[in-house]
Amino acid sequence: MRIIESLKEMTETARGWLAGGSVGFVLVKGELHEGHMRLIQEAQKACEIGVVGLLGCCWPFATIEQRAQYQRNLQGQLQILSRYQQLVVFIPRFEEMYPVRFMTLLMPSGFPLDQLSESEKAYNRSFCTLTVKLFHLVRPDVVYFGQKDALQIAILRQVIRDLNIDIHLRMMPTVRESDGLALSSRNQVLSEAERQAAVSIYAALQAGKALILYGERHSSVIIQEMLKSLQKYALISIEHAGVYAPDTFLPVVEALPGIVLSIAVNIGAVRLLDTITWMENGQWRM
User: Fold this and answer.
1) 86 in the Ramachandran plot: left (φ > 0), alpha (ψ -120 to 50) or beta?
2) Model confidence over 104-148: pLDDT tens digits?
3) To bridge 185 with a disulfide, which of 31, 137, 149, 150 should be the other Cys (CB 3.0-4.6 Å)?
């Protein structure tokens, strides 16, 4: 395993990959979990070079104390990754990624960004800015995401398309806990009552899927069924629940193969989202 921390070393290393084969890249925003492990395994299986970006030290939404805490826990994260042979681990620092005179921000607009709250718009603009910076530094061919991040991926696809960035985004099935809740480092901060409420997200998606399997095609009916599952819990504040086109995340009137069912909620101070996909071949990616 090779560890790279400086932007200069990452840039010089990436230049040498042009003749080395395809590069697969996995972004890790928080603490490592089994979902990240699956993405890393897929990247190493499909590409000649596997790169993991540990972003906790440069995450723009973290406080100074949170970044310091991540730094203190970093050796444990690296110990987990040490099981993977021939892996490159990139750990960019906040001071290098965002120097004092840093003033540039990517500003994607239109759908799906327009349907978000102002805070979520700001989040996604900063996320896209950081991600495109990482693309230039690492020069990956394929970037791997879990499909629960489908909305964020749709926004990122627009940026890649509009800026002609030569990168393929690959969406993988979500890794879940035994009760169906999508794995996330955010799950750890939920109280017991909030954790019980969070299970309803996947249950609501399953309820929408069940209606489709019974032959229902009207999105409004499917959405109402999903909302019914979520509204059982007073702790849940619903941000969105809908039937969308995966590339644009525009709402669709009719549920046909190729659509995604997606839900985002706030439970206490935690925002959780989940997505399942009815693929063109008729199968479901959960």
Assistant:
1) left
2) 999 888 877 777 788 888 888 899 999 999 999 999 999 999 988
3) 31
Count of domains forming the chain? 2
For strands 2-4 and 260-267, give the pairing. Answer: unpaired
Domain with 86 in it: 2-172
pLDDT per position as a tens digit, 219-229: 999 999 999 99
- Specify whether the CB–CB gap between 146 and 175 falls below 8 A: yes
Give the pTM.
0.92
Question: Quick one: 27 and 68 in the same domain?
Answer: yes
Please indicate, yes or no, if residue 180 is contained in any of the structural domains. Answer: no
Contact 106, 129 (CB under 8 A): yes
Report, in angstroms and rounded to the nearest whole number, the Rg of the chain calculated over CA atoms: 19
Nearest-5° angle of CA 89, CA 171, CA 117? 95
Catalytic residue numbers?
36
